[in-house]
Amino acid sequence: MLSELSTIGQWYQNEPAEGWHFDEVTFDDEAKIAFEKLDLNIKIFEHSARVDIRNNHTYMPGHYFLYALKVQPLVTLLHKYMEMFDSLKSHITNSENLAILVRSLSPSHPITDALDEYSKTNFYQAFSDREKRLRGKDIINGSGASTSLRSGDDFICSVILKALPVPDVSSDMLGQLIYSFSQCPEALQVLKKKYYPSIPYLFKCSSGDELMFRILSVLGWEGKLDPLFDNVDSSVGNLDWAETSGAFKLSRTKIPGNISYFDEPVHYSPSSGKYVHIRKGLLNNSAGIQQVNDALSNLWPELTISEENSEFLFKSSVRQKHSAPPKTGGCNRIIYGAPGTGKSHSIEQSTGEEFIVRTVFHPETQYSDFVGCLKPVMEGDRVAYRFRPGAFTKALVKAIKDPSNIYRLVIEEINRAPAAAVFGEIFQLLDRKPDGSSCYQIDISDPDLLTYLNAQTGGRFLAGKLFIPSNLSLVATMNSSDQAVMPLDTAFKRRWSFEYVELSFAKAPNQVLELQTSEGLFSITWADFAEKVLNNMLKEFRVPEDRMIGPFFLNETELQDWQSALRGKLFVYLWDDVLRHKTQDRARLFSAKFGTFGELYNSFPKEPVFGLEADSLIREFGTAVENLDG
What we know:
By secondary structure, the protein is α+β, with helices and mostly antiparallel strands. The chain has 4 domains: 5-198, no CATH class; 203-316, no CATH class; 332-501, 3-Layer(aba) Sandwich (Rossmann fold); 512-624, no CATH class. The protein is built from 25 helices and 24 strands. β9 (267-269) and β10 (274-278) form a beta hairpin. The longest helix has 20 residues, at 72-91. The protein is elongated.
């Protein structure tokens, strides 16, 4: 279907200034190879291009290429107009007769009569009325014997340039560049794949219905809607679209005849002989937007619909929200303290789970685990290799794709691996600017990592430089009692801030324990037992604070079976880790009659297992449990 050319041109003429604020772009090897196939004598550089024109030349900035991407829908429609005009011209070889037909008040020819009435009207108006083609150049000049025809590419370029907010003095080469992309599908595909994230959006509308009209009109011009309506029974009035019920109305007239559908048709289906109208209100809620995005994913995979500040945008899914600056404040922080003080829990409390990527270091953790590497996968009957991202790369991609939120890469037990070796060259990125982004960038030496990052972020790493964005924080936890496991070197520690989590039982689980003592069964809360019995005695034993018992050393789930938790986790930690080399102190905490941990394990909870001092403290801070006879 030939949509009204002037209406489509106004999409661009009425575009606010922010819609033309393009990002700086870099051309990688793939882009250079593809763009040098354009029908121009062109040489592509990293950020610009040189075009030779006869004995002269001109240099074009990389932003010119983004104009070609932004107005590509208009160019697609113009080509459909020119295809019809060229078909008409091939049957009317005399220019004077062609001019008479086009300028006629009631034009008729078998070629155009085969069009639907709406398309036919728009076709003749576009070539006979300058206002209907944005005041672009006439394709037919003169009259009578002096009638001549302008070239199709010159006509298309003139209309394109009338739609763009650029001065005429700099527009001619821009028009040729935009037109040349429409003549080279391979170059256009690379432009779409790599550079959609560099324009703020393709379309922005205050009405979701208007946005749907634009998107589906473009898909119709490109022939991508035809499969949806092929082989549809001509009696069908409404048609579903994926999960969206009654999304389309098919009508034999360009007026839908139903106020629930958009007035202007988005497509004409030759197989059914009907116009296609889109139902209003498809984007009225988040569920509707998601359904439409799912349906569009195969038709226009590079772009997605979103609602921002009561406006609807069609833009790259990896494009940051144009309406808000990126978040800042990324940092490197190590949280340390005694086991069970709630270090990991405190991170989740300050950040939504969806904004956290978590990993755990262990002695075998390597750089390839943290950053990523090629790994074998089965593709049918053969083995292939694909890049599998590590935790750092996953967090980096999420932060780049959503700069309006702060993301945290949480590294549990950072000192259980050789941290400097695991970080490798990323070590250099840990120096931060005041906004939280990396002070320095490093070359990405792994080509597979570079390819993966560009594919996931829409080309944000085309320059081959790796950096940490301002909205990505690295937060690590460390049991300070384990500092000797894998010591952190001074240079590494200098790039982190440290936060100590003190022992506090204010929010400890309130589970009640019933322990055998020398004077019978006593009940005591977990908090009192850990703080007032165990930790008080460990202080007296001169045990460092970071080896004492935290309030969440045993969590609520473990404490539901507190007898097993005490003997299977708490007692073994005290016996083997804290008091391994303090046998005299161990005999004060636990009964001196136990020579091995096995004896202690098997005796609890049937009989008293604590030494005299611990036994006394349990009775002091606990409550005697009455037996059956009181």
